[in-house]
């Protein structure tokens, strides 16, 4: 019983550590060709690349969730401003990305996620 509890605790700790790990190499923040947003404006930041570099370990490759919640329809539940606040301040086990990502990166990621409905 103690052995299985220890293994489960260790597995949980390893899983959660992926969400807060610091990056050893900077993510590909800006794309060579600006991506167009749904409003038609050009974006300097590739939000999908940011997601892959910073969020996949907890939210999954297809936003399906694993350690973190499913984000496939997050835009139907939360506004861009609410998502921006969560990215800046963190929530629950999710760390804050303020200081890790620039304001432009956070805004682009929040806009991209808010389109997921």
Automatic annotation (TrEMBL):
SUPFAM superfamilies: Cytochrome c (SSF46626)
GO cellular component annotations of the record: membrane
Chain sites annotated for binding heme c: 55, 58-59, 94
Molecular-function annotations in GO: electron transfer activity; heme binding; iron ion binding
Post-translational events: Binds 1 heme c group covalently per subunit.
Source species, domain of life: Bacteria
Domain Cytochrome c per the UniProt entry, residue ranges: 42-117
Keywords: Electron transport, Heme, Iron, Metal-binding, Signal, Transport
Region (Disordered): 19-38
Signal sequence annotation: 1-20
InterPro entries named among the record's database cross-references: Cyt_c-like_dom, Cyt_c-like_dom_sf, Cyt_c_BACSU-c550-type, Cyt_C_IC, Cytochrome_c550/c551-like
PANTHER family listed in its UniProt record: CYTOCHROME C-553-LIKE, MENAQUINOL-CYTOCHROME C REDUCTASE CYTOCHROME B_C SUBUNIT
Protein name stated in the entry: Cytochrome c
Organism, scientific name: Paenibacillus sp. SYP-B3998
């Amino acid at each position: 019983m103690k052995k299985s509890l220890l293994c489960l605790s260790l597995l949980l700790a390893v899983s959660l550590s992926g969400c807060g790990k610091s990056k050893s190499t900077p993510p590909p923040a800006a794309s060579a060709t600006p991506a167009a947003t749904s409003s038609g404006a050009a974006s300097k930041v590739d939000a999908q690349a940011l997601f892959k570099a910073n969020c996949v370990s907890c939210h999954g490759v297809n936003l399906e969730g694993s350690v973190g919640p499913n984000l496939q329809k997050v835009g139907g539940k939360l506004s861009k401003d609410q998502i921006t606040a969560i990215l800046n301040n963190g929530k629950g086990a999710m760390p804050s990305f303020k200081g890790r990502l620039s304001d432009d990166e956070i805004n682009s990621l929040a806009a991209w996620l808010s389109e997921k409905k």
